[in-house]
Amino acid sequence: AGMKFFLQYVGFFFAFFSAAFLIISTWTDCWMVNADDSLEVSTKCRGLWWECVTNVFDGIQTCDEYDSIYAEHSVKLVLTRAMMITADLLSGFGFLFLVLGLDCVKFLPDEPLIKLRICLVAGVMLLLAGLPGITGSVWYAVDVYVERSSLLFHNVFLGIQYKFGWSCWLGMAGSLGCFLSGSLLTCCMYLFRETSSGRFHSAYSLRKGYSSAATVVTNMHLPSSQTATSKMYAVDTRV
After folding, report:
1. CA angle 48–134–124, rounded 5-degree value
2. What is the C-alpha separation between 233 and 239, in angstroms, rounded?
3. Which of 80, 93, 209, 210 has a Cα-to-Cα distance from 48 of 20 to 30 A?
4. How far apart are CA 200 and CA 112, in angstroms?
5. Which CATH number does the domain housing residue 161 bear?
Protein backbone atom coordinates (compact mmCIF):
# COMPACT_ATOMS: atom_id res chain seq x y z
CA ALA A 1 0.00 0.00 0.00
CA GLY A 2 2.85 2.37 0.80
CA MET A 3 4.48 1.85 -2.59
CA LYS A 4 1.12 2.38 -4.29
CA PHE A 5 0.64 5.74 -2.55
CA PHE A 6 4.20 6.73 -3.43
CA LEU A 7 3.68 5.98 -7.12
CA GLN A 8 0.40 7.89 -7.13
CA TYR A 9 1.97 10.99 -5.62
CA VAL A 10 5.02 10.85 -7.89
CA GLY A 11 2.73 10.51 -10.90
CA PHE A 12 0.60 13.39 -9.59
CA PHE A 13 3.70 15.58 -9.21
CA PHE A 14 4.95 14.96 -12.74
CA ALA A 15 1.46 15.18 -14.26
CA PHE A 16 0.81 18.57 -12.64
CA PHE A 17 4.04 20.17 -13.81
CA SER A 18 3.90 18.50 -17.22
CA ALA A 19 0.40 19.79 -17.96
CA ALA A 20 1.40 23.25 -16.69
CA PHE A 21 4.55 23.29 -18.85
CA LEU A 22 2.62 22.28 -21.96
CA ILE A 23 -0.06 24.93 -21.45
CA ILE A 24 2.50 27.67 -20.71
CA SER A 25 4.55 26.62 -23.71
CA THR A 26 1.56 26.76 -26.05
CA TRP A 27 0.45 30.24 -25.01
CA THR A 28 3.79 32.02 -24.61
CA ASP A 29 5.65 33.97 -27.25
CA CYS A 30 9.22 32.67 -27.24
CA TRP A 31 9.32 29.61 -29.47
CA MET A 32 11.87 31.43 -31.61
CA VAL A 33 14.30 34.10 -30.37
CA ASN A 34 16.80 36.14 -32.35
CA ALA A 35 20.21 34.50 -32.24
CA ASP A 36 22.27 37.67 -32.68
CA ASP A 37 20.97 39.42 -29.57
CA SER A 38 24.44 40.76 -28.68
CA LEU A 39 24.29 43.09 -31.69
CA GLU A 40 20.69 44.15 -31.16
CA VAL A 41 19.08 46.71 -28.88
CA SER A 42 15.96 44.58 -28.57
CA THR A 43 15.02 40.94 -28.10
CA LYS A 44 12.65 39.51 -30.67
CA CYS A 45 10.55 36.44 -29.85
CA ARG A 46 8.06 34.58 -32.01
CA GLY A 47 5.38 32.33 -30.60
CA LEU A 48 2.58 30.30 -32.10
CA TRP A 49 0.12 33.19 -31.90
CA TRP A 50 2.08 36.47 -31.87
CA GLU A 51 5.50 38.08 -32.11
CA CYS A 52 6.94 40.31 -29.39
CA VAL A 53 9.82 42.77 -29.30
CA THR A 54 11.37 43.77 -25.95
CA ASN A 55 13.67 46.76 -25.65
CA VAL A 56 16.92 45.82 -23.91
CA PHE A 57 17.34 49.18 -22.14
CA ASP A 58 13.89 50.08 -20.78
CA GLY A 59 12.23 46.63 -20.90
CA ILE A 60 9.20 47.88 -22.85
CA GLN A 61 7.52 45.06 -24.76
CA THR A 62 5.31 45.40 -27.81
CA CYS A 63 3.50 42.43 -29.35
CA ASP A 64 1.88 41.97 -32.75
CA GLU A 65 -0.69 39.23 -33.16
CA TYR A 66 -0.81 37.26 -36.35
CA ASP A 67 -3.54 38.33 -38.75
CA SER A 68 -6.06 35.56 -38.11
CA ILE A 69 -6.22 31.91 -37.19
CA TYR A 70 -7.74 31.31 -40.64
CA ALA A 71 -5.05 33.29 -42.47
CA GLU A 72 -2.42 31.60 -44.58
CA HIS A 73 0.34 30.43 -42.26
CA SER A 74 3.22 28.04 -42.68
CA VAL A 75 2.57 24.32 -42.30
CA LYS A 76 5.01 24.28 -39.39
CA LEU A 77 2.99 26.86 -37.48
CA VAL A 78 -0.44 25.34 -38.13
CA LEU A 79 0.56 21.77 -37.28
CA THR A 80 2.47 22.83 -34.17
CA ARG A 81 -0.60 24.73 -32.96
CA ALA A 82 -2.84 21.69 -33.51
CA MET A 83 -0.45 19.26 -31.81
CA MET A 84 0.19 21.49 -28.80
CA ILE A 85 -3.53 22.18 -28.24
CA THR A 86 -4.18 18.43 -28.43
CA ALA A 87 -1.41 17.81 -25.90
CA ASP A 88 -2.85 20.50 -23.61
CA LEU A 89 -6.32 18.94 -23.64
CA LEU A 90 -5.12 15.37 -23.11
CA SER A 91 -2.72 16.29 -20.30
CA GLY A 92 -5.34 18.46 -18.59
CA PHE A 93 -8.00 15.75 -18.62
CA GLY A 94 -5.41 13.16 -17.62
CA PHE A 95 -4.46 15.24 -14.61
CA LEU A 96 -8.12 15.66 -13.58
CA PHE A 97 -8.72 11.91 -13.86
CA LEU A 98 -5.63 11.28 -11.77
CA VAL A 99 -6.91 13.57 -9.02
CA LEU A 100 -10.16 11.56 -8.87
CA GLY A 101 -8.20 8.31 -8.71
CA LEU A 102 -5.99 9.30 -5.77
CA ASP A 103 -6.69 7.33 -2.59
CA CYS A 104 -6.58 10.52 -0.51
CA VAL A 105 -9.49 12.00 -2.48
CA LYS A 106 -12.91 10.96 -1.12
CA PHE A 107 -14.36 9.87 -4.44
CA LEU A 108 -15.76 6.31 -4.52
CA PRO A 109 -13.95 5.41 -1.28
CA ASP A 110 -15.49 1.90 -1.19
CA GLU A 111 -14.45 1.04 -4.75
CA PRO A 112 -10.66 0.62 -4.78
CA LEU A 113 -10.65 -1.26 -8.08
CA ILE A 114 -12.58 1.51 -9.84
CA LYS A 115 -10.21 4.15 -8.46
CA LEU A 116 -7.27 2.09 -9.67
CA ARG A 117 -8.78 1.89 -13.15
CA ILE A 118 -9.24 5.66 -13.11
CA CYS A 119 -5.51 6.01 -12.43
CA LEU A 120 -4.77 3.69 -15.35
CA VAL A 121 -6.99 5.77 -17.65
CA ALA A 122 -5.19 8.92 -16.49
CA GLY A 123 -1.85 7.29 -17.29
CA VAL A 124 -2.97 6.37 -20.81
CA MET A 125 -4.19 9.92 -21.44
CA LEU A 126 -0.88 11.37 -20.24
CA LEU A 127 1.04 9.01 -22.51
CA LEU A 128 -1.11 10.11 -25.43
CA ALA A 129 -0.54 13.76 -24.50
CA GLY A 130 3.21 13.34 -24.61
CA LEU A 131 3.16 12.11 -28.21
CA PRO A 132 1.81 15.25 -29.97
CA GLY A 133 3.63 17.48 -27.48
CA ILE A 134 7.08 16.06 -28.16
CA THR A 135 6.36 15.79 -31.90
CA GLY A 136 5.28 19.41 -32.22
CA SER A 137 8.02 20.95 -30.08
CA VAL A 138 10.90 18.87 -31.48
CA TRP A 139 9.74 19.32 -35.08
CA TYR A 140 9.47 23.07 -34.58
CA ALA A 141 12.94 23.23 -33.00
CA VAL A 142 14.55 21.09 -35.72
CA ASP A 143 12.89 23.16 -38.44
CA VAL A 144 14.24 26.40 -36.93
CA TYR A 145 17.71 24.90 -36.59
CA VAL A 146 17.74 23.57 -40.17
CA GLU A 147 16.55 26.92 -41.52
CA ARG A 148 19.27 28.81 -39.63
CA SER A 149 21.97 26.31 -40.60
CA SER A 150 21.04 26.48 -44.28
CA LEU A 151 21.22 30.28 -44.24
CA LEU A 152 24.63 30.21 -42.58
CA PHE A 153 25.85 27.52 -44.98
CA HIS A 154 24.88 29.61 -48.00
CA ASN A 155 26.20 32.83 -46.38
CA VAL A 156 22.76 34.40 -46.49
CA PHE A 157 22.10 37.12 -43.90
CA LEU A 158 18.57 38.46 -43.69
CA GLY A 159 19.11 40.84 -40.78
CA ILE A 160 17.48 38.65 -38.09
CA GLN A 161 18.26 35.00 -37.54
CA TYR A 162 16.40 32.90 -35.01
CA LYS A 163 17.07 29.98 -32.71
CA PHE A 164 14.50 28.09 -30.65
CA GLY A 165 13.64 29.71 -27.32
CA TRP A 166 12.51 28.75 -23.84
CA SER A 167 8.88 28.10 -24.82
CA CYS A 168 10.05 25.32 -27.11
CA TRP A 169 12.24 23.86 -24.38
CA LEU A 170 9.27 24.02 -21.99
CA GLY A 171 7.14 22.06 -24.46
CA MET A 172 9.79 19.34 -24.66
CA ALA A 173 10.08 19.16 -20.85
CA GLY A 174 6.31 18.95 -20.43
CA SER A 175 6.05 16.18 -23.02
CA LEU A 176 8.80 14.13 -21.39
CA GLY A 177 7.09 14.62 -18.03
CA CYS A 178 3.85 13.29 -19.51
CA PHE A 179 5.67 10.19 -20.74
CA LEU A 180 7.22 9.66 -17.31
CA SER A 181 4.01 10.12 -15.30
CA GLY A 182 1.99 8.07 -17.79
CA SER A 183 4.49 5.23 -17.59
CA LEU A 184 4.34 5.23 -13.80
CA LEU A 185 0.56 5.18 -13.76
CA THR A 186 0.11 2.48 -16.41
CA CYS A 187 3.03 0.08 -16.05
CA CYS A 188 3.57 0.24 -12.29
CA MET A 189 -0.05 0.72 -11.17
CA TYR A 190 -1.07 -2.28 -13.30
CA LEU A 191 0.90 -4.49 -10.91
CA PHE A 192 -1.26 -3.29 -8.03
CA ARG A 193 -4.39 -4.08 -10.02
CA GLU A 194 -3.82 -7.82 -9.69
CA THR A 195 -2.96 -7.48 -6.00
CA SER A 196 -6.01 -5.37 -5.23
CA SER A 197 -8.25 -7.71 -7.20
CA GLY A 198 -6.93 -10.72 -5.28
CA ARG A 199 -7.41 -8.99 -1.95
CA PHE A 200 -10.92 -7.98 -2.90
CA HIS A 201 -11.97 -11.52 -3.83
CA SER A 202 -10.27 -13.05 -0.79
CA ALA A 203 -11.98 -10.56 1.52
CA TYR A 204 -15.34 -11.31 -0.12
CA SER A 205 -14.82 -15.06 0.26
CA LEU A 206 -13.75 -14.60 3.87
CA ARG A 207 -16.85 -12.56 4.68
CA LYS A 208 -19.03 -15.17 2.94
CA GLY A 209 -17.35 -17.94 4.92
CA TYR A 210 -17.89 -16.11 8.19
CA SER A 211 -21.56 -15.59 7.33
CA SER A 212 -22.09 -19.29 6.55
CA ALA A 213 -20.25 -20.36 9.67
CA ALA A 214 -22.31 -18.03 11.83
CA THR A 215 -25.54 -19.48 10.39
CA VAL A 216 -24.40 -23.01 11.09
CA VAL A 217 -23.32 -22.16 14.65
CA THR A 218 -26.61 -20.42 15.34
CA ASN A 219 -28.63 -23.41 14.16
CA MET A 220 -26.46 -25.80 16.18
CA HIS A 221 -27.00 -23.87 19.42
CA LEU A 222 -30.78 -23.68 19.08
CA PRO A 223 -32.50 -26.20 21.41
CA SER A 224 -34.57 -28.88 19.73
CA SER A 225 -37.65 -27.93 21.77
CA GLN A 226 -37.33 -24.32 20.68
CA THR A 227 -37.01 -25.44 17.06
CA ALA A 228 -40.12 -27.66 17.33
CA THR A 229 -42.07 -24.89 19.04
CA SER A 230 -41.10 -22.50 16.25
CA LYS A 231 -42.32 -24.94 13.62
CA MET A 232 -45.63 -25.45 15.44
CA TYR A 233 -46.03 -21.68 15.76
CA ALA A 234 -45.43 -21.28 12.04
CA VAL A 235 -48.05 -23.97 11.22
CA ASP A 236 -50.63 -22.38 13.51
CA THR A 237 -49.98 -19.01 11.95
CA ARG A 238 -50.52 -20.30 8.43
CA VAL A 239 -53.77 -22.01 9.55
Report:
1. 120
2. 10
3. 93
4. 9
5. 1.20.140.150
